[in-house]
Amino acid sequence: MRKLRLIIKREYLTRVKTKGFIIGTILVPLLGVAFCLLIIFLVRHKPSQTMRLVIVDNSGTLAQPITHNLDGKLENGQPEFNIVETIVRPASPDTVQQDLRSRINSEKIDAYLWIPADATQSFELHMRNPDNFALIGPLSGAVDQAVISARLSARGVHLDDVKEILRGTDLKLLKVSETGESVEKGQSIGIAIALVILLYTALLMYGIITMRSVLEEKTTRTMEVLISAVTPFELLCGKILGVAAAAFTQFAIWMISTALLFTYGALAAAGMGAGSALSGVHIPISLVLYAGIFFFGGYFLYSAMFAAIGAACSNEQDAQQLQWVAMAPLVFCMVIYSVVLNDPTSTTSVVLSEIPFFSPVLMSLRISLQTPPVWQIVLALVLLFLTTIGSIYASAKIYRVGILMYGKRPSLVEMFRWLRYS
Amino acid sequence: MDAITLENVTKSYDSVTAVSGVNLRVRQGAILGLLGPNGAGKTTTIRMIMNILVPDEGSIKVLDQPVSDSTRDLIGYLPEERGLYPRMKVLDVIVFLAALHGLTEEEAARRAKEWLDRLGLAEWSGKKLLDLSKGMQQKVQFITAVIHKPPLVILDEPFSGLDPVNAATVEEIMLEMRAKGSTIVLSTHRMEQVERMCDSICLIDKGRNVLDGELRAIKQSYGKNTLHIEFSGSDSFLSNPAITNITRLGNGVEAKLKPGADPQEILKAAVLANVSITRFELLEPSLNEIFIDRTTRA
């Protein structure tokens, strides 16, 4: 036990202390969050300066309703637009335009809006810096509303009536669970897909890390020095548990920061007027627990397989050729998950989600969609547990033989033969 | 009590028999030279003593205990295939391995510093292994094999990569360990080192031990049958039916005599041939000769 602890400790510290781990664990999520916040900020950001606007109305009728519609306020409480002047049907349009251009250039006004005589033609907004997007939106809206309203009035219809007629319906999605409660959902499918991708990536990533770690001890010839002190089984278990501890650390940091983001981030976003996008997401704690249990079961199953592959090969190229054996079931999960997503209770879905190589991903997926009967979850866990024990046992055998074999990559048949060695 | 006992040990891989019916006893407190051509089965034998491999037949005891996972801690092992985590620091890697052998980390660190001092690596203790030269890495490896003061030490080619000064230091340490009662198994191809240091030898060829026992007794059993002659002039006198084998050296020859041959006859022939002789000595065969003799016999 003491030796196992030492191996886990070394494995854990060498993983956690690398630059890659620190960057991957802390910096990447931080950058992600910062990036999201930046986008929210940019999208919701209101300019702080009132636009000084001149309206040139060649139609003679639209200036007044547009001016009426331009009633938005800036964050500092100032109006968005200051209509400096309204010129109705100018006698000499060219002179007026020239004059307005020079007023823009001398920064007496910021822009002028050119309303054509016929509303089917283009409206023009002339400005010095056509990059003030935040105010173009409200202006365009005000123009549209004025024009549509005018057209409707010409047909004897009131704009508010049309709004009333065109108002959409609200389709609420309700999730029926075994306990009879109706919980509103809606993000379930999104969460489910995110969960599948997360589990797939994590199982693959940590499996390959374990494989590389075994391979490193072989290529640097540290292996024989190590097994003069510990048994290959202790070394295998220490390695898997050490990488698991590093994975757990990484996940814990991510989960806590996500939780913080959802609570504090939602508050912050709400403060910026973007709360709805985040605060509506609700991840049930039971799902996190189940997914965690299935993830670690799957991690032990797959990393034992990856470790055996690492032990059987003597270099990275050979290992890459052989790693498909462990990757295939995971990739299959990614191919087949939409079947489970579409109908989680079908016989196919139930059977697939009970198979130990798929259950870490597919049973977690089913749990996130609807709660499967408890016996199905328990059965999947029992099967996963038993297969994991078998996988670790077989890996230990392959590991024991493989770690001291250098040279030609063994075939799968040879690896199966190793299982029979004493 | 014997340090190592092998009884009728056999090990095969698929169709190849690597070790076949090997018997060996190593006296406690002795230095044993484990010799043999490449691929003779030395490494397999050592790995079985380390309980890394399990023999198909026969039994192995280390210090009177059948080999098991717990006998590993009685042995210090420097394998032929060796290396250490290249990205770990020198001191950390020594402490890690010493702790695996049962030392507390404090004790391991204390002893590691002493050893690094003795082998002239003190200022490298905070460096990563990959920053060290091959010879320095070799010394770190040696420290990891002996730091837990094991009663039995197995060293597979411990001198490879070491310059004469460092090789002498390692030799000195080995003799010190023997003086304190440790048993050492030395596997090497450098026969002069074996002649200088080993009390007994075991010669393995094609998986069998073809020769083992006290080195002195083995050499005596061969008798004084080798002439060491240093001379200048024609070497035609050497084509004598009494000489069965000639090994040419830099300044002379080693000539092996037929059993019962009279060395005086050779000397007479040389004088008649007008060869000027500076050295003419009748010796026991060198270990090198015994090695070649035993491993090239049909």
What is the CA–CA distance across the termini of chain A?
23 Å
Structural class of chain A: alpha/beta
Can you tell me the overall shape of chain A?
elongated
Overall pLDDT of chain A: 82
Structure notes:
The complex is a heterodimer of chains A (422) and B (298). By secondary structure, chain A is α/β, with parallel strands linked by helices. Chain A has 2 domains: 51-160, D-Maltodextrin-Binding Protein, domain 2, CATH 3.40.190; 184-418, no CATH class. Chain A is 67% helix and 7% strand. Chain A has helices at residues 2-16, 19-44, 63-69, 93-105, 133-154, 159-166, 188-219, 223-226, 232-271, 275-279, 285-312, 316-322, 324-342, 347-354, 359-369, 374-402, 412-418, and strands at residues 51-57, 81-88, 111-115, 124-127, 174-176, 182-184. In chain A, the strands form 2 sheets. A 4-stranded mixed β-sheet of chain A has the order 2-1-3-4, with helices on one face. In chain A, strand 5 (174-176) and strand 6 form a beta hairpin. In chain A, helix 1 crosses helix 9 (232-271). The longest helix of chain A is centred in the middle third of the chain and has 40 residues, at 232-271. Chain B has 298 residues and is an alpha/beta fold. Chain B folds into 2 domains: 2-219, P-loop containing nucleotide triphosphate hydrolases (Rossmann fold, 3-Layer(aba) Sandwich); 223-296, Alpha-Beta Plaits. Helix content of chain B is 33%, strand content 31%. Chain B is built from 9 helices and 14 strands. Chain B has a 6-stranded mixed β-sheet with strand order 6-7-8-3-9-10, with helices on both faces. In chain B, helix 2 (90-100) crosses helix 3 (105-118) and helix 2 (90-100) runs parallel beside helix 4 (134-146). Chain B is globular. Chain B starts with a strand and ends with a helix. The model of chain B has no long low-confidence stretch (mean pLDDT 88). Chain A binds chain B through residues 3, 6-7, 10, 14, 216-217, 220-231, 404, 406, 422, and chain B through 47, 50, 52, 54, 69, 72-73, 75, 77, 79, 81-88, 96-97, 99-101, 141, 144.
